[in-house]
Each structure stands twice: as C-alpha cells, then as structure tokens.
Design goal:
The complex is a heterodimer of chains A (about 250) and B (about 475). Chain A is an alpha/beta fold. Chain A has seven helices and ten strands. Chain A has a single domain, classed as Rossmann fold (3-Layer(aba) Sandwich), CATH 3.40.50.300. With about 475 residues, chain B is of the alpha/beta class. Chain B folds into two domains: about 290 residues, no CATH class; about 55 residues, no CATH class. Helix content of chain B is about 25%, strand content about 35%. Chain B is built from twelve helices and 23 strands. The radius of gyration of chain B is 21 Å and the shape is globular. Classes of the chains: A alpha/beta (about 250), B alpha/beta (about 475). Chains A and B meet through helix 2, strand 6 and helix 3 of A and helix 10 and helix 11 of B.
C-alpha cells in the first residue's frame, strides 16, 4: 500500500539520551494524523528526526516515504521528496528576504521535479507568491522583509504556512503550529492549511503535533495518537482528543 | 587555488564561474617592458606619457622616499614581495590617453570584459564609464549634460595633460608620497587612473564608474584616483577591480585621494577582487571640509594579502564620515582592512561598520584607528565590527586603536564574532535548499546590509562572488 509516511520501531537519541523508544506510525495520502502528548514526550524529536536534523541520531528502526527508507537522505533531499516541517520556533535569517529564500527553495524543487525545464522567471514567481499571500491573508510587504526577522509569533507561523503553500508538500509536519497564536491568527493559519490540502486534492498527508486539542477544532484529524515516554501509547479517532481534554494524559498507560 | 569550473546549484543569479575572473588573455605586448623599478624606468614612464616636468620631478622625489622608507613593521608579512620581479609599467593600448568610444576598443580587450560580465546594459545604466586595462585607460565617456556643467571625468594621464593646474594643486596633497613605502612607490610609478572634478553646486544623480584590471604576469598596477568635489556638490563614484590569476606575486598599490569641500557630499564605492596571488596595498584617503559628508563603501574579496584602511580626515566643523566595508578571507588570504578617522573639527561624527568573513584557513583582521584631536569638541565616533568565522581553521582579529585627546567627545566600539548557526542551516535545508547554498545564503545575508548600499550590478556581482567562494564545502 501507498504510504506517504511509515515509521517502523523508531528509536532516536539526542546527545546520547534516548528519547524515542519504538514509535510506529503510518500515514496514507490525504490523511491527517494528530500526535498529542505531554511536554517532553518526544513530539518535537519525532518531527526533527523525520526531517533529518543532524543532532537526532536514529539508533534503530526506519522512516519510509512510499515504502523507501529516507534515513540516508539529507534534509534538503527529504524536502525534495515532499517532506515539509512547519517549525515550532522558526529561525530568523537576517539579510535574506522571504521572497528571495522562497524563490531559491522553489527553484530547487522545480529543478528536482522537472529537470528539463528552465528555472521559473522571477516575475512569474512573484505573481504566484502574491496570489498565495492573498489566499493566506498575508500582507504583501512581508515578501520583502528579512525571513522571520523581527516577526511576531503570528507572522512567523503564517510565513511557515506560506512556505508550505509554495512547496506543496505531500507529507507535511506541523509542529505546535498553534503555540503563540491568538484565536484569529490560529483560524487564519488553519484555513490556509485547509486550502493547501484542498489544492493538493488528497495527495497530502499531515502530521499535526500539538500539546492542546484546540487546533483540532480547525484542522480535523482522522487519527489521534498519544505519544508518551517515547512511544505511541494510544491511538484512536478524533474523539480521543476530546477525552484527552477532559481527563489529561495521566490515564493513558 | 580555486580554479575549477563550478556548477552553481539553482542559485538566484545566473551562472558565472571563477574562471571568468581568473582568465588571462595573451599579453605579447608585455615583452618589451622590463622588471624592477629604477630611475631610468621612471624617466621612461614620464617621457612616454609626455608629462610636464613638475610631474617627473614629483615622481623622482617619490622614488627617493621609496628607497629610504622601510616596509611597514606591523601587519601582514610582506617579505615575499620582490620589487625586482614586478613589471611596473605596461601599455595595452597603442593610442595615447584613451579611445573616443567603445566601438574602437580592441576586440581582445572587449572579450576580457565580456567574460567579466560587464554588460552593455550596465554601461547604459552607469552613465560615465572609465575602464582601465592594465596601466592605460581604454574607455572614458561622460554624459554631455554633465560636461556642460563643467564636470571633468577623465583618464588621469589625460587630466595631467589637459588640466595640469587642477591636477598639480591636488595631486598627492591628501596622501603625500612620504606617507609610507607604498605611497612613495605609487608616487614614483603611478600610471592611469581617474580624475573626477565636480564643480561647485553640481549634483550628479547617477554613479560614475571605472573598472581596473591587471592582466599580465608580474604586472603592477598603480592607478591614481583624484576626486575633487567642490562646495555644495554631490557625487558617487564606483570602482571595480578584478584581476586574472598568476603563479607569481603581483602588486597593486593604487592611491585614491578625495577632497570634499564645504557642504559637499560624496560617496566612493569599490569592489575589489584581485587575483589571489596579488598584494593589494592600497591607500585611500579623503579630506572632509565643513558640513561635508564622505561615505566609503568597500568590498574586498580577492588578493593574497590586502592592507587597506580607507581614511577620513574630518577637518571641517560638523563634517561627517561613514565607512562601510566587507572583507572575505578564504584559503591562503589575509584581509587586513579597516578604517582610519581623524576628528579635527568640532561636532564631527563618524560611523564605521565592518563585516568580515573567514573561511578555509583565511584570516580577517579589522585594524582601525580613531583619533580625536584636542580641537574636536563634541566629536562622535561609532565603530561596529561583525566577524563571521566559517570553520575551525579560520581566524578573525579585531585591532582597534582609539586615541582621544578631547574629553568632550563620545566614542563607542562594538565587536562581535560568530559562527554559522546549525539551526539556521537546518531550517533552510528543510525547504529543499542544499547545505552549501544555504550557507551561502546566510553569509550573503550577513553582508547584505552593506552590499545593498552598492549599485545593483555591483551588489549582484558581490553576491555571485560570495557564492563562488562558498562553493568549496565548509565541511
């Protein structure tokens, strides 16, 4: 079967300390999975390990995209395959504009997907970016600002979603996208995710990492998993999130 | 040495490889000129240029200083510099002075500039173009409307012939020949360069440009730039330098003198990318009068050893200097650069912003001097140095010297040293950008606040050069 993500018995160490201890997870195209869990359960470690952060060492198990292991691919190669991580705390890069950065990213991706085509012309790219910014209700001026530099929390998260809209991933990981957002900003961001998902017409899998179930009102998960002490301790449907809200994480063993 | 044809990976700007910069044209015409410097050579240069006797006198006097003054006892080691192995004078063009227009410039010279990617369009954008190929200017033009206003923009040799009084009044009055060994050498063997005169109240809206290039082995380059900006006038002049690479030491000892008169404003920008076996020992200095503003913008990419400290002498009350600089030291390179400011007048102010990058064992040094004289009441000086070190073998040093003789002044010096942040790189690579390109983007971002002060064409060239330098993986 066709899985945009399959994680098998994944063990991950950070600076010599085991954090993930046998995670199992499978996502098919079009599905949205939520990973919930208390602080320190390894949620962000999972996101970073999937993207190939050099500090996260995989000691056992496998991560696969369409059945093929991606463990020996560098982060940029994983991105070209279709992986995307919306960061909980995106880095700010001074002197590099949002537009210039996204043009470079988009050109790399297009070169990978269509090696024979010439690179996209700057004015065409700018037009596309402008349309996407309108769709996501992002101020046009943001394109010229330095990437995440002196951005508010909301602006950073919106910029992450803008990047996702440009790159149209087939496997999107949203790490604590709700953190630091007020209700309005959260609604805008989630609406953006829904629009991108719709544009991709069932091709995109989403892994939504969150501490609170609030965001799940706006992005409806097909499956909810509870990560606890480095393992998926419980899986269920959307209703599991409601139970978690009422009872907390303690009841899960 | 980095001499590979490198494939660029989907970067923003179109392809350009290092070879374009290190390409060497056949230089048969070099054979007739001997190496080393002596009295006969200086007299030969002078008579070849048909110079007035006073200029020859200045040359010979400078040569006497050169013989007496020792090499600097501070800074990078210059002991490998062999003056007897350097050719101090060559002519590429047969015509005296310069060519009337681009059409008559010889094809082989045009070809070199084509490889350097100086496009026709750029010449249109930059209204006046003065290009120096080895020691003689080959192209000069200036918009008629500026000529009508009395602006002079000429090859320096031509200026000596056509505007002797002006030249004589200012030549080496800002940088005297006995200033240091290389100023003396320059005074003795200078050849070519630019003379720019902006009359009182004339404000040039577009930058004027010249391009210098060394193209023959062991070729020295000693171009002289003399700029006089009269009262209330404004202008911007930009020089670009690129040289092909050789197997032995070439020397560049140019000299830039700028006189910014009362209430005038001038910006001098330069991008220097001499080949990596070049000693770039350049002297740049401005004398700034009352209420005048001097701005320096400089990028240093090439050379084996660079020693360059643009200097502003804030002579007039309320005069002001702004120094912006970038230096990139890669394998085998020493970029010893900085700024010198002399506050003499009251309420004078200066700001220095320097950014340096060290990679592959390269060494970047900020060497600065702030002097606040007794007379400089309420002077203000601010220095900011940012260094980026890309690997364990590379070095960055900050050597500021602050000499305050007036209590009623404010000085501030900040220095920061950083490395590439792993999280920044990871962030960019998760968007499909390969690590090398991500690093180049971050480095370009680091220097961008200064690069964006350059005219667009130069900013693009700087970015390309940085990307080329970054292509050898950092590891």
């Amino acid at each position: 079967m066709n899985h945009v993500l399959s994680i098998k018995n994944l063990h991950v160490e950070v600076e010599g300390k085991p954090v993930l201890k046998g995670v199992e997870l499978t996502i098919t195209p079009g599905e949205t999975h939520a990973i919930m869990g208390p602080n320190g359960s390894g949620k962000s470690t999972l996101a970073n390990a999937i993207m190939g952060h050099p500090k996260y060492t995989i000691t056992k198990g496998d991560i696969r995209y369409n059945g093929k292991s991606i463990l020996n691919l560098t982060p940029d190669k994983r991105a070209l395959l279709g992986f995307f991580l919306s960061f909980q705390y995106p880095q700010s890069i001074q002197g590099v504009s949002v537009e210039e950065f996204l043009l470079a990213a988009y050109r790399n991706q297009q070169k990978y997907l269509h090696p024979d085509k010439p690179p996209v012309l700057v004015f065409r790219f700018k037009r596309m970016l402008k349309e996407l910014m309108e769709m996501l209700q992002i101020d046009e001026k943001m394109a010229e600002r330095d990437l995440n530099y002196r951005f508010s929390g909301g602006e950073k998260k919106k910029t992450e979603i803008l990047q996702m809209a440009v790159l149209k991933p087939t496997m999107a990981i949203l790490d604590e996208t709700d953190s630091g957002l007020d209700v309005d900003a959260l609604k805008t961001v989630c609406k953006g995710v829904a629009l991108i998902k719709k544009q991709l017409d069932g091709k995109m899998g989403i892994l939504l990492i969150t501490h609170y179930q609030h965001i799940l009102k706006y992005i409806k998960p097909d499956h909810v998993h509870v990560l606890k002490e480095g393992r998926i301790a419980k899986s269920g449907g959307a209703s599991l999130a409601h139970q978690l809200e009422k009872k907390g994480y303690e009841w899960i063993r | 040495m980095n001499n590979k044809v490198s494939k660029r990976k989907g970067a923003i700007f179109s392809d350009l490889d290092r070879l374009a910069f290190d390409h060497q044209d056949p230089s048969d015409y070099m054979k007739k000129f001997s190496k080393g410097v002596n009295r006969e050579l200086i007299e030969m240069i002078s008579s070849d240029k048909n110079e007035p006797i006073w200029m020859q006198g200045l040359r010979l006097k400078a040569f006497e200083y050169f013989k007496k003054i020792p090499l600097p006892t501070w800074g990078p080691d210059l002991s490998d510099l062999d003056f007897d192995e350097i050719c101090f004078f060559a002519k590429a063009a047969d015509q005296k002075g310069g060519f009337a227009n681009w059409k008559v410039v010889p094809d082989y010279i045009k070809k070199t500039f084509e490889r350097l990617g100086i496009p026709e369009a750029e010449r249109r954008i930059l209204a006046g173009v003065g290009v120096q190929y080895e020691s003689e200017s080959i192209y000069h033009s200036l918009e008629q409307e500026w000529k009508d206003l009395g602006v002079i923009f000429a090859d320096f040799d031509v200026a000596v012939q056509e505007h002797p009084d002006l030249v004589r009044r200012y030549f080496m009055k800002c940088v005297p020949a006995n200033d240091h060994k290389f100023a003396a050498l320059h005074g003795a063997v200078w050849s070519g360069g630019t003379f720019l005169y902006i009359p009182k109240g004339v404000k040039l809206k577009k930058p004027l440009q010249a391009y210098f290039r060394m193209n023959a082995q062991n070729m020295g380059q000693f171009e002289h730039t003399l700029i006089v900006v009269e009262e209330g006038a404004e202008g911007h002049y930009i020089e670009g330098c690129s040289a092909p690479k050789y197997g032995s030491n070439a020397l560049h000892a140019g000299c830039v003198e700028i006189f910014v008169k009362k209430g005038a404003k001038f910006r001098y920008s330069s991008v220097e990318n001499w080949s990596k076996d070049t000693y770039n020992l350049n002297t740049k200095r401005a004398i700034v009068d009352e209420d005048a503003i001097m701005e320096w913008v400089g990028g240093n990419m090439g050379s084996g050893v660079t020693m360059l400290y643009p200097c502003s002498i804030l002579k007039g009350d309320r005069s002001c200097a702004d120094h912006l600089g970038i230096a990139f030291a890669n394998e085998g390179q020493i970029q010893d650069t900085g700024a010198k400011i002399f506050h003499l007048g009251q309420n004078t102010s200066s700001k220095v912003t320097m950014k340096s990058i060290s990679k592959g064992g390269g060494k970047s040094i900020y060497r600065g001097r702030i002097h606040i004289a007794k007379t400089a009441k309420k002077a203000m000086s601010q220095v900011e140095c940012d260094a980026l070190i890309l690997d364990e073998n590379s070095i960055s040093e900050t050597l500021p010297s602050i000499d305050i003789q007036c209590d009623d002044s404010t000085t501030n010096h900040e220095a920061r040293v950083g490395r590439l942040n792993e999280e920044d790189i990871f962030y960019l690579t998760t968007r499909g950008i390969p690590q090398e390109q991500a690093e180049a983007m971050i480095v370009n971002g680091f220097i961008n606040p200064i690069v964006r002060e350059l005219p667009l064409e130069y900013a693009i060239e700087m970015n390309r050069l940085i990307e080329m330098e970054m292509e050898d993986a950092i590891g």
